[in-house]
Amino acid sequence: MTNNRNDAAHEMWAIAWRSLYGEKHPEELFRISRDEIDAMEGLSPDKWPTAGMTEINWDLSVQGRKYTVDLPAPGVLQPADCAHVDVGSMVLGKASFSEFDPLLHPRFRLTDSMLWTELAPPNLGRAILHIAKGWPISPVWLCLHEEDGFHFGGGIHRYQVLKRSGSPHFYFLAEPDDVPAMNTLLTVQWIKS
């Protein structure tokens, strides 16, 4: 992606944030330098600044759902444009990591030693720092895998960081048609928007 597209995506995100919350924020809001991100690479989760965090700044607003889907945007964790997905129609759920993690499709079950090799290091570093700074974080997007278990439609980096924090639960979005099947697999607290 070109720098112009990156800048345009960031500017769209900043405009959306200001219109959503009616606040004026500096241009650099939620920007993380490449040096900061690179400094995270290879660190074990017990050395992450998110280790032991129990309070997560969740953005559970309907407007914030558009940041659930990860699109290329190096300057921000949650890019502004995800028009190809109708996140407004998704439902919001809450589940415990301990109950959910064993239900992940094997491809998405990552040990600590696999994180930096299986995931994109810049995205993982950005997720660590974004969450550690207490910035708003969108729910992940969960889908049912055709071969059994769950997989991510968006947010695998966020999930892996949050799972290794001190938080006992996480929030996610799901397609309404998946709710009955999810209820048979997992204890979910569904939250009305």
Describe, in plain words, how this protein is organized in 3D.
- By secondary structure, the chain is α+β, with helices and mostly antiparallel strands.
- Helices cover 32% and strands 13% of the residues.
- The chain has helices at 3-21, 34-40, 97-100, 115-118, 121-132, 156-163, 179-185; strands spanning 91-96, 140-144, 150-154, 169-174, 189-191.
- Strands 3-2-4-1-5 form a five-stranded mixed β-sheet.
- A hairpin with a 5-residue loop joins strand 2 (140-144) and strand 3.
- Helix 2 packs across helix 5 (121-132).
Write the layout of secondary structure elements.
Blueprint: H1 3-21, H2 34-40, E1 91-96, H3 97-100, H4 115-118, H5 121-132, E2 140-144, E3 150-154, H6 156-163, E4 169-174, H7 179-185, E5 189-191
Parallel strand pairs: 2-4
Antiparallel strand pairs: 1-4, 1-5, 2-3
Helix pairs in contact: 2-5, 5-6
User: Cα distance, first to last residue?
Assistant: 34 Å
Q: What value does the average pLDDT take? A: 81
Q: Tell me the number of strands.
A: 5
Uncertain parts:
1-7, 71-83
- Radius of gyration over alpha carbons? 16 Å
Helix content: 25-40%
* Class inferred from helices and paired strands: alpha+beta
Assess the beta-strand content as a share of residues.
5-15%
Major sheet, described briefly?
5 strands, mixed
| DSSP summary: helix tally | 7
The backbone outline, from C-alpha atoms, is globular
Question: How do the strands of the widest beta sheet line up side by side?
Answer: 3-2-4-1-5
| SSE string, helices as H and strands as E | HHEHHHEEHEHE
